[in-house]
What we know:
The complex is a heterodimer of chains A (about 270) and B (about 200). By secondary structure, chain A is mostly helical. Chain A has a single domain, classed as Cytochrome Bc1 Complex, Chain D, domain 2 (Orthogonal Bundle), CATH 1.10.760.10. Helix content of chain A is about 45%, strand content about 10%. In chain A, the strands form three sheets. Chain A has a three-stranded mixed beta sheet. In chain A, α7 (about 155-165) crosses α11 (about 245-255). Chain A is globular and about 50 Å long. Chain B is mainly α. Chain B has a single domain (about 20-200), classed as Cytochrome c-like domain (Cytochrome Bc1 Complex, Chain D, domain 2), CATH 1.10.760. Chain B is about 45% helix and about 0% strand. Chain B has eight helices and one strand; from the N terminus they run αβααααααα. Chain B has helices spanning about 1-30, 45-50, 60-75, 90-95, 115-120, 145-155, 180-190, 195; one strand spanning about 30-35. In chain B, α4 crosses α7 (about 180-190). The interface of A and B includes residues 169, 178, 179, 180 and 231 of A. β7 of chain A pairs antiparallel with β1 of chain B.
Amino acid sequence: MNKGFMRVIFTVLIGLWSVTLLSDTEGVFDQYREMLGDDNPAIFVIFDGEEIWYAPAGPKSVSLEQCDLGLGPGVVEGAYAQLPRYFPDVDRVQDVEARLEYCMTQLQGLTTEEVRGKPYSLRGDLGTELEALVAWIADQSSGLAIAPGQAHAKERATYALGENLFYYRAGPHDFSCATCHEQTGRRIRLQALPNLTTHPGAAEAYSSWPAYRISQGIVRTMGWRMRDCMRQQRMPELIMGSQASVALQTYLAVNGAGASMAAPGLKR
Amino acid sequence: MMMKTIMQFLAFIIFSSAVCADEVYDVLLESMTDKNFVTVERLKQDELQAFCSQPRSASADEARAAELRAAALSDVPIPSDQNYLGDWQRGEKVASNGRGLQYSDDPEQENGGNCYACHQLDPAEVAYGNLGPSLSGYGARGQSIAMLQYTWTKLWNTHAYNICSHMPRFGAAGILTEQQLRDVMAFLFDPQSPVNRTQP
């Protein structure tokens, strides 16, 4: 199959759609989503992610095949749905991004700075390796129940920390996540705001990330979503895989637990 | 025995919430980096922010709330020229402008009030949010000094009337200038302003 050619066609189509989308409302977006059906353009990013996983890389020139995402070295299927979770080897709770950073530094010999340098695309970029890896790893949990670890004391402490972070008001606008996400049926301008303190709200949001952003033409991770909402909150930049990023995602994952993963989702 | 249990319980509540706030701050400090003109200095909470960061379920400390409400009210200045109303057309721009103080924004540009993110104003504008109540037809409340003062105070420091309100402290936090606030006031009150011209 000619993957390259298909990708060009897709990119052009998506590009055209996104131009009209920029000025459009949610209703029109839903129509596009319907037209795309199962043809989520994230499929190409997922292919890339799989290739990157198996490709030798870094100073040690080894692949990520021995990376343990929680279900044992090399087991990817079902792993994403059980993150964030406690990892005894680091004695910490990690999300997929923190874990990939660990594997890239430990197995492949990259430095933390190299991994954290540019984890997420800027507007106009074609996507980063981290985004592709996360898209593939999440896809390998598609249809499985969200089941983040909550058996270990550190996992429960991480949830409690996440809840406190969610309500932490600071900065010139006094915003917290709760300002925009603790009520049902609210929106900012025309953008619907999920109530992330409830199961239905958290489930719908958590299950759909990572997601292909039509307006940006790239896959975004949940870590990026945390960072970008922090930006809207007038906060400084959230570090990928940081304790706050992991704790916020734990809060959302536990609130949404039981629902089926449906990532990569498709977003505006 | 009973007394001791109660004391322990109280100590636990006080101690655990104190530790929590500090822990959250420490975690944030380690999890974030300065970006452009936005520094980790912003992670520090003032008294009001700390008080208003309890999860919904936490019980409210009414005495402390009253103290903070009074403090907010006492710090609201009267406009320097005694004039509450500026230019509604400029005010309309302030209300529509959602930029300002994000690290992706240009710090040379003036900040917006982003009122449309949370309020309906001009009924002809469909892209309005609903975190706050609709303000369409606000001018019908009249321009009595009490009404002007109430609204000015609300915009300067919303917590003077509604502690832990979701609205930013546009004046007290220095988001908008006095002149911008006067202009936004005019946008709310002026009979010629689209906020008041037509009813939905």
